[in-house]
## 1
Amino acid sequence: MNNVVITGASRGIGFAIAKAFAKQGYNLLLTSRNDFNLYKAVETLQTHYGEITVSAKAFDLAVKEQALSFGAWCLEQGAPAVLVNNAGVFEPGNIGDEPDGALEKQVATNLYSAYHVTRALLPAMKQQQSGHIFNICSIASLQAYPGGGAYSISKYALHGFSANLRHELKSDHIKVTSVFPGAVLTDSWQDFDNSNSRIMEAEDIAEMILAASRLSKGACVEDIVLRPQQGDL
């Protein structure tokens, strides 16, 4: 099937990834928590890429039952060619003084969502013996920094999930790529003046993912690390 599944698809990196694949003629299966933003994104995509099918349904993937329901909904339309686990939440803080529950909330959204959605889709992907899974990690998955706290912990864990998945799925001909973006101009940076291109655009991440997905069957990009040209902030 020529389907691309993208979580956290209504804005930012997820929406940029949706546009990149839409331009190449892929059908899209999208989700996010906010149904208004999601259907606004769908409207934009359908307006500009009328030759593809764009299906969307809102789910809170931090809730296991909803993550599994999303996976089942996707499978009604066939096994995906590409899965992009992009759903995430960022709340800055330090381990010693961040609010109680910060770790549980961010692990549920940043790790468990990818874990449960992937497990729901894997049997069909294994049956077709093909597919490509992208897990949107973060530079915070690789390097601790002040204010990283629970967010960094959750992203380190997502990197571990992705690395294990890559190891497991080699013999099933399913590729797995971990993506580690640095600062990207999304809602988290909405007040940032990027007139001098100090940080990256969401489209930069999307184009690298698209390129990695288009290699031959014998090649797999395991890690994509992207940082602003002038370095991390």
Note: The mean pLDDT is 96.
## 2
Amino acid sequence: MRIPRFYLPTPYQPGAKVSLEKAQVHYALNVLRLKHNRPVELFDGQGVQAQAQLQIIDRRHAEVEIIAIDTINRESPLHTVLLQGISKGDRMDFTIQKATELGITTIQPLFTEHCDVKLSADKQLKRQQQWQDIAISACEQSNRNHLPTILPPIPFTDWLTSAEHTQGLVLEPSAALSLKQLPPPTNDPLAILIGPEGGLSEEEVALACQKGLQPLRLGPRILRTETAGLVILSALQTLWGDF
């Protein structure tokens, strides 16, 4: 039987009782239909999880009583950073969700030259929170105890200005290097630059290479923006991660 998991970023103490948030209560009681005293798991997003019991107070209120605390490391040995050109609709949401399941460490959304998504400052904050909520749900589902960092979206030029020489990869269909020829990464963070639906411009690829990213091809086929990064992450986890 799968044990439901809830993200509660608070210090855990055996015997302590912690109230669930309104949305969590709705999910637990109305979606999962959990019963009183049902075993659940908590995690704080920083590597600590706890075994607990659900205590139903009424239809709108519930809390969890902490039974035992564990520190379980399920993080990949690879420190990966996804530099993702922001895509339209739910494609970006899908990328965030699946990259989290695959063990991504950090996600930096980017406004690139061919990016069709325009967001005001207020909408950027809301979208970043939405992406963080998606990552939280993906951690609950995949048993991750560490939340990946979802950074505020920035223009590609700002990333170039702030980034120092970076170990990483940038997708380029005409590149000579394939995944089979890729040398093992060092212990430094490994960046993966993926363009939006329209891809990256030649200038963006060239500038990324100047920062240390290596051009990489993924065979003769062109992958969608929401597919490409996940394919690379899966391959890297197979080669040098924990797959």
Note: Residues 121-142 form the longest helix (22 residues).
